[in-house]
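Sample 1 of the test manifest.
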Amino acid sequence: MANAQDQILTPQSSNTVVPEKVREGVDLEINGRSYRHTGDDQMPLLWYLRDVLRLTGTKYSGEHGDGGYDLVLVDGKLASAINLPLTKLAGKSVTTVEGLAAADGKLHPLQQAFVDEDAIGCGYCTPGWLMASLDLLNRHPQPSDNEIDQLPNLCRCGCQTRVRKAIKRVAKGGHA
Amino acid sequence: MSGHSDNTVQLSRRRFLQVLAGAAGALVVGIRFAEAADLPVPPALLGDTLYGLGAYVRIDADGNVVIGVRDPDTGTGTSTSLSRIIADELDADWTRVSAVPLGLGVEDDNGKPHWTYGHQAGGLGGAIPAAWADLREAGALARWLLLQAAARRLGVPADRLRCEEGSVISPDGRRFGYGTLAEAAAKIAPPNAPVPLKTPDHYTLIGQPAGDIDARAIVTGQAVYALDSYLGDALVAVLSHCPWTDGSVESLDTTETMAVKGVVKVVPLKPEAGVPLGQTVRAPAVAVLAENTWAALQGRAKLKLAWKAGAQSESSAWFEQQATDLINDKNAAPTTRVRNDGDVDTAAKKAAHRIEATYAQPWLAHATPEPMNCLARIDKDGAMLVVPTQAPQQAWKVVQRLTGLTPGQIEIRVPRVGGGYGRRLDHDYVAEAVLLAKAVEKPVKLMWTRDEDLTQDYYRSASVHKFSATLDGKRQIISWNQRMASASALTQRGVPDDRLWTSEVDAHQLPAGLVANLRNDWYALPSVMPRGPARGMPHLSNAFAVESFVDEIAHSLKEDPLVTRLRLIGEPRMIPLGDGRTLDTGRLINVLKLVADRIEWKNWLRTVNGLGIACWHINGTYVAHAIEASLQGDRLNIERAVCAVDVGRVINPTGLEGQIAGATLDALSTALNLSVSYKDSQVQQHNWKDYPLASMAQLPDTTEVIMVPGDRDPSGASFLAMPTAAPALANAVFRVSAVRVRRLPLLKEMLRML
């Protein structure tokens, strides 16, 4: 299912100046890399990430983004990937759970806090919790319990109290 | 590789340890389960993937340790706890250990399957006890071999060396990393008899806390679930199931579907009437197969599909009425008299005081976060499937039946699973993937959408429990009678009629053994709804009813419900319950008192908030919950949730705490919000909004878990904390609101009665 048309763009090596062709498709950035999608521009970001790019950290668990399993950041704002057709993402910058750790593999403090608090059940909902918690900490570096209560995520294994501890651990550290 | 007899230690008639020289100087010790003569492992399997070997430990030349984990990890922590059981015997450096899920171990024994890994099931509480019994030797033998290799290199006797965190340490303090010894160790002949296991005072990992071994992969989005598995040329299949299991296609027009770019084919799936695909009778379906999920979903939306209704027409309201009528019919004979101690009728006549109450509980779905899915490649001479399953051997049986392939031709991979809760013990979705792959002669990646997952589940039956207890003048309970009606989860699963009750009620449940005259009757109800195993059952529904009723007895006596419970339990002693089961009242009292102390039960009468308590036991494990709840207007807040468990030896306190806290929250979420309803045999819940797992705001901010230390052989704990959370909550709600909730889900009932 991998589409040859979806490729990482590399700078032209030639110095010759030629008129630029009208670009087809949707250009967007995902985790700091540039992509161009020339297939169906109505395809939701979720299936583009999963089926085309094989970035499978963003999960499917239901329609309309219920439960927060498919959350990503678009230009820094929390968004449900299943509700976002690619056409709306032209020129946008997307961050998925795969993009949270540093290039050298060092975990983001929030990821490390989830590990330290063992805020994980089966792990299927964890990427969604991470993205929503990161968004929360970006908006409220010292979130109150009531603010944490507003997270949209659902979990059946019961990781909620440990997620709360992980968020507070990061808040105490003063950075997210 | 030396001869078979040279590299094998026989542990029992059925179990062998096998030593292999792995690729690039690795030492591999595997446990094999033989039926008759064991087969030598083919050299082809000595590479980096050792699917044929069985649960194993591999020490690489660079010092990294890889452990093959045989039981599926559905979030129950088996990858971590099984690895630690082996790694402790090995004295491994835990920071160098990684776990690999093994998939199904099966080979051909004259056309019959031979399960080469022993126990392979997740979420049933059996993984740790089984591993404790038969996996530790693998680590112990590997350690022994490494010691011998070091002894030969250093020219000192092995008993003057010791092992610590992945190294052998010489008498003069020099450290030799396991990796540097692995190649030599693999060439040493194992001893004739099993190597002795550690005594508990030498454990370094068992009993110590450890986070999930896969945590890093999970938080970086690298953990691969079945739904994250792809094959290059697989078609994505999404389904539209008939709302009736006995319905059929009335009309189907695929023109618009086929016009969707990427849609390849539409395939009707029509199971033979009444023949289960897995173990559950599954409705017919129409599958849309496409090059990617988005195309398949669009194609499904454009189907012009009309279903012909089946003959079935049942509603959940009708079912509950039937159940209520049945338990109120004094002349109705029970389907099974599950327990009958003493003489309830005679004792009841002498009573000074009688109390009755009836509790109703709804149908439930499994609602696994990762929906049913399966990747299947079926060729003439082989099959490879990636299956999110709790029971790989059962999945194999389905594949074998539908393909006719031999045992050795079927490979089943089981990556980490996005929640099980009993749903993945059956494999209807695997059957569908196999049938589709055969139909299109291409690999198929099947995915149920949430809508299909909720409406095509097999469900936990609704139940109605009616209690009648009598007390004497001294406030002692002298008779206890439970009448319960439900539809058995075991119907149509090859279980004899006289055992259908076993999924619905436990013959040893409280207060069995504590009340001299006790009768427990089960009434079977028919239903067309598919049913099957569900997390925490049969304890989940019974503990809610029993432990709510004990509270009602306390209230009628104007007594502190903790005092009533402690009086009912009596002195610490061992009470035989039959079938080899024993109730250790001392351990039950202990968990009750632990949660009572923690939540400051002494304030029970005074506090503005409500305190509630409940206790239970399951197969020799003990659990109690205490919950503090408050009410602001009609908003219920769970202020505190305390749980104490006694499971014997604790392998991984962090893992156990996670399981107990998690099951507590799952049980609270279920009790607060969840119910499945159906009309005309069609389930009404289609998405997370209709079947709302609890939000963060509804749940307590913290879960307090108390683990009783113990040295008995470890028990499973994945659902131990499910049963007592809901009755403790309902009892707390009664204290804070004076509303006695006798019907779940709790919030809806509480708001109705406030």
